[in-house]
Design a protein that fits this description.
54% helix, mainly alpha, 3-stranded antiparallel β-sheet, DNA polymerase, domain 1
């Protein structure tokens, strides 16, 4: 067994024992005698130490079984207490006041700074002593205030004894007090080893084996030491003392004990405290504290604080502690410990550790957004982030605004497009909510749109609530009635299995051919995208055109119709998808299809397309208005044109558009089609497309073209293609250089050059201006014109607006007049002195 050394001041004297002894009230329990000596005295009803002091040795030796060894032990301990008591309380002729002042100076500074009341309670539970101390010191706040009183202090001898003992008590080293107690209850190495081992969590068997005794003997010795410690604590009141050190009367902190008691014995001491708790005392491991007023409901305290105080500013800590302590009627120190364990300080704010990011977002929503926040607004989301930081400090937030948005949506209610509001800011009377429920329940329809419900209650909602649009109503109904109905983006349904598609099909089936206007009128509030997506999923609904629909139940199709139409489609589709315009034009002229057309009231190619798609969707590829063979990657107009061009090296543009016209391929904008073909064909002239492979555009040639264009832009700042005639500086590509060819090459290979288009419907003009990509006006033709005018005006001032217009036309910057935007907004005008002003 390793010997444990207890370090303490050899001159330590126990003031509490001294006072009790001086009063004649000290009992033999405080002598910590051997079992034999103690039992001998008890059996003869000798309990008070002062009685022993007065008894002759002969009387003590006459006690049965009390030998000379026991007598010696008793005399030594009684004499030690007598001697120490005299030493502690004897003023040595200095007088009471001088004695008190002298010993007041020995009180440590950290004790003088503490509150006095807890030390009075810690010192004793003796009613007389408490009455004396409270009478003379009860009005004082701090230990240091004692000095003011004792300078003019007068009391009788008995009261002075209490006061002297208390002043000496205040100067005692806590570690000496603990060490003295351990020496008394565990005077042998074996006993100290047992306590040390048990404090480390070792089982009785292991300790007994190491000590050479039985497990039961270890238990007995430990029990004896527990009883001894209880007796020591009866006088020393350890937990009350450590509570006083923390300026309170209810809680002793484990970390305070650890800091004030020597490392070699602190674990043993804490083990003894935990093992000998009185019924009204408790220990909490999480908070590391001992309570002298019972076991607090820590869970309820934590719950209250997390709900009432999810966060607070760090400069409000004192007020929070005091107010919570008062509200819950618990010690302020306990509130501090709860905050310490359950809160984290972020810069200037304390946050409860259970407070999630969503909780923090909710705080910001309630504080700053009574009208809601638009989560799709990037600038607004950045402001939201700053507000989070302002309140909670530099906490870690998701990098993506989408992630922040998702959390906001979870805790709020939709109140407008992409706008969300906290539920606390919604106000609507209960009776109105009830009537909206009744309206939904009593409707013949299973699924209703939010707009339909909103329109039914619009006036009342606007007058009696802050729900001012169908989005807000959608958000509120989903929030309020989510357990009763089923919600989609556009609809509220009373049956999970019946959705918008079911309602849509039923309406169309009952009403024949219906327009989008009919549908929008019946299904109020349904978006175009939802309508289109639903139509695409419903195979029984036939799209006659983009705005008219019918149900397949209305068709009258025979098996012969399938045979005849299949043969005709196979005939018309010859490697290239065919436009339904062409199919309609063909079958309308053939008698074999006359009855089919009449039976199904087919009056245009669009309705025919819808019917053919319904009939043959599994056999052909459909891409309105085109139909292709099965397996065709794409049957759209663009793909048909690409298939037509796949074996060609060049083609006249007129010839290409004639092909489109012959095949009923509708081209809205010629320039757009040419642009889509530019990955393979470039426009080399006003009426010609050339395959890129024919041009031989090597890297060197592209570099030469790029450098020439950049040289022009460096010198002139812009390059208007209408005015370009000389291409001698450009490399030979095997075809004649034209403005169209240069535009095509720059458009496809030189992203660092911006192309500004001059507004015109004339497809045969190279209506483009080149500028560098870093030009701030590169996306606005009007601003480019203004910028070009300023460039020229700074070099050679214009004398009139006519001169400006003529110069711009000559440069190829405008086709007709100066943009009205410039003159109407006074960006270009003649001043009162007749000078041209360009702003």
């Amino acid at each position: 067994m390793k010997k444990l050394t207890i370090k303490r001041n050899e001159e330590y004297i126990d003031p509490q024992i001294a006072e009790i002894y001086a009063k004649g009230e000290l009992t033999i329990e405080d002598l910590f005698l051997s079992t034999r000596a103690y039992n001998c005295l008890i059996e003869n009803n000798i309990i008070i130490v002062n009685d022993i002091k007065e008894m002759p040795d002969e009387d003590l030796l006459s006690i049965s079984r009390l030998g000379k060894g026991s007598l010696k032990e008793i005399r030594e301990k009684v004499n030690a207490i007598d001697r120490n008591s005299q030493k502690l309380l004897n003023d040595q002729g200095m007088g009471d006041t001088h004695f008190l002042l002298s010993h007041f100076e020995t009180i440590p500074d950290h004790v003088k700074q503490r509150k006095l009341k807890p030390y009075i309670i810690a010192y004793t539970d003796n009613i007389h002593s408490l009455e004396v101390l409270n009478r003379y010191f009860g009005e004082l706040e701090y230990v240091s205030d004692i000095e003011k009183v004792i300078k003019e202090f007068e009391c009788d001898e008995k009261e002075m004894l209490v006061v002297k003992s208390f002043v000496r008590y205040l100067s005692v080293d806590v570690n000496d007090m603990v060490s003295d107690a351990l020496e008394k209850i565990a005077g042998t190495e074996r006993c100290m080893y047992i306590l040390q081992s048990r404090s480390q969590g070792r089982p009785l068997e292991d300790v007994g084996r190491d000590s050479g005794i039985t497990r039961e003997r270890v238990r007995q010795l430990e029990e004896i030491m527990f009883k001894g410690f209880v007796q020591c604590d009866k006088r020393k009141r350890f937990l009350n003392l450590f509570a006083a050190i923390s300026d309170n009367t209810d809680i002793a902190l484990e970390n305070v004990i650890t800091n004030m008691v020597d490392d070699s014995i602190v674990d043993i001491f804490i083990y003894l405290l935990k093992s000998t708790l009185k019924p009204h005392q408790s220990y909490n491991k999480k908070y590391g504290l001992f309570s002298m007023t019972g076991d607090f409901s820590y869970i309820n305290i934590e719950k209250y604080m997390s709900e009432a105080l999810p966060y607070f500013k760090s400069d409000e800590l004192y007020e929070v502690v005091e107010e919570t302590s008062k509200e819950l009627e618990i010690p302020a120190l306990l509130v501090e410990k709860v905050i310490e364990k359950n809160y984290t300080c972020f810069d200037t704010v304390y946050c409860n550790n259970q407070m999630s990011l969503a909780d923090k977002y909710e705080v910001v929503m309630k504080k700053y957004y009574p009208l809601g926040i638009k989560v799709s607004d990037e600038e607004e989301m950045e402001i939201f982030r700053r507000r989070i930081t302002d309140i909670f400090g530099n906490i870690k937030l998701p990098q993506s605004n989408k992630a922040v948005e998702a959390r906001i949506v979870e805790i709020t209610v939709l109140c407008d497009r992409s706008t969300y509001i906290h539920p606390d800011y919604i106000y609507i009377p209960d009776d109105l909510v009830q009537r909206i429920e009744e309206f939904i329940d009593e409707s013949d329809r299973v699924a209703l749109s939010y707009l339909e419900v909103f329109e039914a209650f619009k006036e009342e909602l606007l007058a009696r609530s802050n729900i001012g649009n169908r989005y807000f109503l959608q958000g509120f109904l989903k929030y309020k009635l989510k357990n009763k109905y089923y919600f989609t983006k556009d609809l509220i349904s009373k049956d999970r299995g019946i959705d918008f598609a079911y309602e849509l099909k039923e309406f169309i089936r009952k009403n024949g051919e219906v327009t989008k206007k009919d549908l929008k009128s019946y299904f109020m509030g349904t978006s175009d995208s939802m309508m289109a997506q639903t139509m695409a999923r419903c195979k029984d609904i036939i799209t006659i055109d983009y705005n008219t629909y019918m149900h397949s139940d209305r068709l009258n199709i025979t098996q012969e119709d399938y045979i005849n139409l299949r043969e005709k489609l196979d005939e018309l589709i010859k490697g290239i998808p065919v436009s339904c315009r062409k199919v309609y034009g063909v079958i309308r002229k053939e008698s074999a299809f006359a009855d089919f057309i009449k039976r199904n009231s087919i009056t245009n190619y669009s309705k025919l397309y819808g019917i053919l798609k319904y009939m043959f969707e599994e056999e052909y590829e459909f891409s309105r208005p085109n139909i292709g063979a099965k397996g065709t990657d794409d049957a759209c107009n663009y793909t048909i044109v690409k298939r037509y061009l796949r074996d060609k090296q060049e083609i006249k543009i007129n010839e290409l558009f004639e092909f489109c016209e012959d095949n009923q391929i509708k081209i809205v904008k010629k320039a757009k089609l040419i642009s889509r073909l530019s990955d393979e064909f470039l426009r080399s002239d006003v009426n010609k497309l050339v395959h890129v492979s024919k041009l031989g555009l090597t890297e060197d040639k592209l570099t030469a073209i790029k450098l020439e264009v950049l040289n022009i832009l460096e010198e002139k700042k812009y390059m208007a293609l209408i005015g370009i005639k000389d291409f001698s500086a450009f490399p030979d590509l095997g075809v004649e250089w034209t403005p169209f060819l240069l535009i095509s090459i720059v458009q496809n290979y030189m992203q660092y050059i911006n192309i500004v288009e001059i507004p015109t419907r004339n497809f045969n003009l190279p209506n483009c201006i080149f500028v560098k990509s870093d030009n701030p006006y590169a996306d606005d033709y009007k601003e480019i014109v203004r910028w070009i005018i300023k460039l020229q005006h700074e070099q050679k001032p214009f004398k009139s607006l006519v001169e400006v217009r003529n110069w711009l036309k000559k440069e190829g910057v405008i086709l007709n007049g100066i943009p009205i935007y410039l003159t109407a907004r006074k960006l270009l005008y003649m001043d009162e002195r007749g000078k041209v002003v360009i702003r």
